[in-house]
Amino acid sequence: MRKSLALFAALAGCLVIATGAWATLPCAANSSCAIEIDNTFSGGCADADLVWCPGGDADFIVIRATVRNCLDDPLAGCNLRLDLDGQGDPQDEMGATNIAICGSQSQTQASDANGAAAWVITGGGCGRFDLDWTITAECATPEVELCDNTDQFCVKSADFTGDLTVNFFDTFKYLPALNSGLGYCADFNCDGAINFFDTFKYLPHLNGACSCTGWTLTAATLGECP
After folding, report:
1. Is the pLDDT of residue 2 over 90?
2. pTM greater than 0.90 (yes/no)
3. How far is CA 40 from the centre of its chain?
4. Under 8 Å CB-to-CB from 114, ≥6 apart: which residues?
């Protein structure tokens, strides 16, 4: 009888230890990730996914993650790392330009009480790009990859050159489009024409000298945006 009780106690102790380990272990199967567009600035564009700006004062992409443990409970205080990479194909009408993204290619945040974390992605340049993104939980050894995906976007920006600064170099690219009244990149209100309405959207970014530090997407052939 005593041996049975001792064995039961040992098993119960092992169960408590195992349950405690599961409570702190990030579980990819129970976790979730999502990517979405906030296009409040543009109000939704007819021919682009978003109109963004290196100053962050326009549309942007949001990547969200919720990490849960192996008991399917939210895991708070877990460092989640977002790793970014990708390929960009600037619109031909802009000539020799880039598509670039603000911030570091690797960004870490601690999950909140709900196990959630979110990253805002903005940048410069005009054209099509593929964004490769991976989210990894660092609060385990070895680390646990929660998700890995690639999404494609068409963007416009007051930063026509894609150097992550809005200045007179961008104006040199904007003015010919304004003069002709035609083009994709300078049509900020997405109505099919370039006129003073688009200038009203461009000038605040120019006046604010919107800028950020970041990185340039690898050049690739992805095709023109509509």
Report:
1. no
2. no
3. 16
4. 66, 74, 76
